[in-house]
Amino acid sequence: MQANIRATEGLTVLEASVEDLVIEPAGVGREARVCGITTANGITVNCGQVVITTGTFLRGKCYKGLTSYAAGRHIRDTSDVNEVEPPSVGLALTLERLALPLGRLKTGTPPRLDGKTINWSILEQQLVFIILKASK
């Protein structure tokens, strides 16, 4: 898919974290409007429209036991088990400043355990039975 996107004529791809929206103030006979974005590295991109797809990193947090810290996902292909992608904090602050509602959906992601760190021999087995009803 990335190859198709990059091969699209007239399309420029810029990978960056969006930190803020550029807003043209209201004027006589017109409302304020979004006219661009500003990235985390300070690049401003002017445009006619902005589509916000915040994903899961909007003011993202990771939880480890009773500890929580601002983060995106943990990076899998690294030797540092604590290396994380950054959360999108600036964009969250912008949306909050604009009085747009912010919420969080509970994904129900279960904790991830490394089976090699569990002493299985001391645990009690719990059998699960699944009954399937044949359709006619």
Spell out the blueprint of helices and strands.
Layout: H1 2-6, E1 18-24, E2 33-39, E3 44-46, E4 61-64, E5 67-70, H2 89-97
Antiparallel strand pairs: 1-2, 2-3, 4-5
Instruction: Describe the sheet with the most strands.
Output: 3 strands, antiparallel
Low-confidence stretches: none
- Order of strands in the sheet with the most strands? 1-2-3
What is the SS-derived class? Answer: alpha+beta
Tell me roughly what share of residues is in helical segments: 10-25%
Tally of contiguous helical segments: 2
Strand content: 15-25%
Secondary-structure element pattern, one letter each: HEEEEEH
Number of separate domains = 2
How many extended strands?
5
The radius of gyration computed from the alpha-carbon positions, rounded to a whole number of angstroms, is: 23 Å
Q: Kindly state the mean pLDDT as a whole number?
A: 84
Q: What form results from the Cα inertia axes?
A: elongated
Terminal residue distance: 42 Å
Describe this structure in words.
It is a single chain. The chain is of the alpha+beta class and 136 residues long. It folds into two domains: 1-51, no CATH class; 56-100, no CATH class. The protein is built from two helices and five strands. The strands form two sheets. Strands 1-2-3 form a three-stranded antiparallel sheet. It has a two-stranded antiparallel sheet with strand order 4-5. Strand 1 (18-24) and strand 2 form a beta hairpin. The chain is elongated. The relative contact order is 0.13. The model has no long low-confidence stretch (mean pLDDT 84).
